[in-house]
Fold this protein.
Amino acid sequence: MTRSTPSAAGPRISATARARLTDDARGRAGDWADDLFRSARKTTRKAAKRGGETARHYADDALDYARDHQREGGALLAVAALAAVVGAAVLETRRPDSQIRRIARF
């Protein structure tokens, strides 16, 4: 088993040229990583913004739904209260000492 000598591996590169190539490769890798990071952050912001818009849309729909049903619930409560008043008046008129019956005879 023989070891390859620098002349057998190819042309020899000077230390300054190797340092320059290394710095250049390191700079390109750093630029690539910075671009990738910025792109990922921009994409994440867009997704979060879209998600926030969707959440606000659903919240607005839920609020409209609740308001509609609040009005309906209020109307049903009013009808139930009126029915209770009428029912109480009917029961009161059936009593022999009813004040309402005396008013109605008037």
Remarks:
- The chain has a mean pLDDT of 77.
- Residues 15-93 form the longest helix (79 residues).
